[in-house]
């Protein structure tokens, strides 16, 4: 099970977006075989705040669309989820509402799909996926597309 704590620092996110992202991430967690009690937080911010976080944590002084802050360490092996008594905190997701709006327009798809893509992308990072090399990038982006398509959020 995945418990998601949402925080909207922009006071602009409609409850329907929160519900959609909750459903997409819960669906993705099931597809990824996550069992037991697991938690993440999803925070919506503006470009100024995400630029500050990007500068402080990644030494990149520009706004970005989404940041992931994993709480778990991953080795060479895929992470296995087992039922445990205590909830496991997977990490934090921070989404720039400004960037999501820009990218939805740029890629000519709905804001719903963009928010869902960014949240899913970040969840996969929390689960150990990355895109540091070409093969990892292909695997991660294919997984994202598969999950979004199966959920019913195909590219328009």
Automatic annotation (TrEMBL):
BP GO annotations: rRNA processing
UniProt GO MF annotations: metalloendopeptidase activity; RNA endonuclease activity; zinc ion binding
UniProt GO cellular component terms: cytoplasm
Residue positions binding Zn(2+): 121, 125, 131
EC annotation from Swiss-Prot or TrEMBL: 3.1.-.-
Keyword Zinc: yes
Membership in a protein family: Belongs to the endoribonuclease YbeY family.
Job description of the protein: Single strand-specific metallo-endoribonuclease involved in late-stage 70S ribosome quality control and in maturation of the 3' terminus of the 16S rRNA.
PANTHER family (UniProt xref): ENDORIBONUCLEASE YBEY, CHLOROPLASTIC
Protein name: Endoribonuclease YbeY
Lineage, broadest ranks: Bacteria, Bacillati, Bacillota, Bacilli, Bacillales
Annotated gene: ybeY
């Amino acid at each position: 099970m995945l418990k998601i704590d949402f925080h909207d620092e922009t006071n602009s996110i409609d409850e329907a977006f929160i519900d959609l992202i909750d459903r997409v991430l819960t669906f993705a967690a099931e597809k990824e075989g996550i069992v037991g009690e697991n938690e993440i937080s999803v925070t919506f911010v503006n470009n100024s705040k995400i630029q500050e976080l990007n500068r402080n944590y990644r030494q990149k002084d520009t706004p970005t669309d989404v940041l992931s802050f994993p709480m778990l360490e991953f080795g060479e092996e895929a992470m296995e989820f087992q039922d445990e008594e205590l909830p496991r905190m997977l990490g934090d997701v921070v989404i720039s509402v400004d960037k999501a709006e820009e990218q939805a327009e740029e890629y000519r798809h709905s804001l719903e799909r963009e928010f869902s893509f960014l949240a899913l992308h970040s969840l996969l990072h929390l689960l150990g996926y990355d895109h540091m090399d070409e093969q990892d990038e292909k695997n991660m982006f294919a997984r994202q597309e598969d999950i979004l398509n199966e959920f019913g959020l195909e590219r328009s």
